[in-house]
Amino acid sequence: MYFNTFDLLITVTSFGCIPSQESHCDCFPPCYRKFSLIEKEKRSIQPIIYADNTQTLMECIDLAFQHKGLALNYQSESLVKRSLKVARNFTWNLQSHWQLVHLYFNCHVLQCPENVTMGTLVRDINFNYFSLYQQPIVATNYICVPEIGVFILNTDPVGFRNASLNCFHTTAESCVSLAHVASEKRTKFLSKLLKEHNQQHFQQNNNRTERVHLAYVDLQYNRTRSPNKMEFFNSMGESLDRIPYRAWEPGSPKASLQLINASCVALTIRSTWLTVDCQRKLPYICEIFTSSRNN
User: Any idea where the C-type lectin domain is (predicted)?
Assistant: First the structure.
């Protein structure tokens, strides 16, 4: 059961809470994300990326943002402070402490959130579980990319507009759109997702599955919007010109006769962006955002 009380609003910078243009999601403004109390007296056993003792929940949330956690466990009554400064290092001779981390630390920053089954929540009257995702993740084929977010790779090829609409219709509760790639980390991790999909499915299907070389992401150029230059926007209307990072494939962005009025962006397995005809049928990557539609 999801609790909507005790929500905390924390300011962070990002490329935005970016719903599909057709979604009308009531996402928070681009500069806001929040941790919500999801389950009382429960603790998630999702992988921990950082643990410490904090005096307040706000300090724990600050640590979660600092270490890019997507969820956290918190015990309001601080545990005995111990001189164990352990962060992102599971190879020390402290494995017993990590196995019993809830006995040593009252703030656990988690790699990934729970899904709708809450399958890795355990009963613990001392802890409450918080998540950046206000709604349970109902998709069965989602992929959690630690430090970045939750994504779905759809391999059935469609045009750009249908890809956007299909992302939107993924779930009735959460804001979902094509994934944004306006950072080096996102571009590389999502490109790695394509390569891992190819390796996994080729092994399972004896090389009979078609490889995914390109996938639509949330960038598009339309001449009616920017008649004087080739300027790309995401579905929230944010210009790529606001972002310093670029990963264009050599020769892109293309301004050929075929693409002079409109072009869309596909991510390649080489961690680059390729401009393509928006009618071209390709796989696509959806991103499940932290805000709910009804927020």
Answer: 151-287
